Amino acid sequence: MDRSNHWQAVFFDFDGVIADSMDIKARAFAELFAEYGPSVQAGVVRFHLDNGGMPRHRKLRHCCERIAGMAVDDSHLDRLGRRFAELVFDGVLAAPLMPGAVESLRLLEREQIPAFVVSATPHEEMNRVAERKGLREYFLEVHGSPRSKTEIVADVVSRFDFAPQRCLFVGDALADLRAARDTGLHFLGIVPAGSASLFPEGTTISATVLIPAAPACGPLADPGRS
């Protein structure tokens, strides 16, 4: 089979790309800071939404120190992180998949193109979610924080000797775009229908998880926002 026009690998963020779970995590951030009042809750949720792809402990530290005005140590952050995981775990398991996600994963499986999860969710939690949602079989590896997305992608590309220009990152956050750019991957931004794109002008975006053909050279063709 001529595989010159196939991707060597496809990397996926999870929340907002594979699972429609962004609202679940936003509500959990609001609940976690309920005792500080609605203005703090609103600020925390805004920071969460504006910083998709940031590791959870970094988000929590910022929200505590800069928004709630509360000094925290590592043990407090660990407790908050565990409480957050309790609040979101069942919801993420129950969350529907994003439009096109299953079809794309099945296509990659048929074409024998390895898929990877690269998430800011803590590593062990991310693996439990993928397993419990019945998705683990579609991914060669599932990765989460504390490593950055750039570190994870660079490690995978190096270990498997992938050519970065023949790999694709599918994400919904600026952190995903930065990881793709930092490692030389093509990028497809997921922007739900009716939502404003947060990506720079010229970024290839789609409302569905639709894997485009790998380009022989040059930029990625825009699959459209159908």
What is the number of strand segments?
6
Helix content estimate:
40-55%
* Percent of residues in β-strands: 5-15%
Mean pLDDT: 91
| Tally of helical segments | 8
Cα radius of gyration in angstroms:
18 Å
Sheet of most strands: 6 strands, parallel
Order of helices and strands: EHHHHHEHEHEHEE
State the assembly state of the protein chains: single chain
Distance between the termini: 30 Å
> Which strand order does the major sheet show?
3-2-1-4-5-6
Q: What does the overall shape look like?
A: globular
Parts with pLDDT < 50 across at least 5 consecutive residues: none
Please write out the topology.
Blueprint (H helix, E strand, L loop, with lengths): L8 E4 L9 H11 L5 H13 L5 H12 L6 H21 L6 H11 L3 E8 H10 L8 E5 L3 H12 L6 E5 L2 H10 L2 E5 L14 E2 L20
Parallel strand pairs: 1-2, 1-4, 2-3, 4-5, 5-6
Structure description:
The chain has a six-stranded parallel sheet, sandwiched between helices. The model has no long low-confidence stretch (mean pLDDT 91). The protein has 226 residues and is α/β, with parallel strands linked by helices. It contains eight helices and six strands; from the N terminus they run E-H-H-H-H-H-E-H-E-H-E-H-E-E. The radius of gyration is 18 Å and the shape is globular. Helix content is 44%, strand content 13%. Helix 6 links the parallel strand 2 (115-122) and strand 3 (141-145).
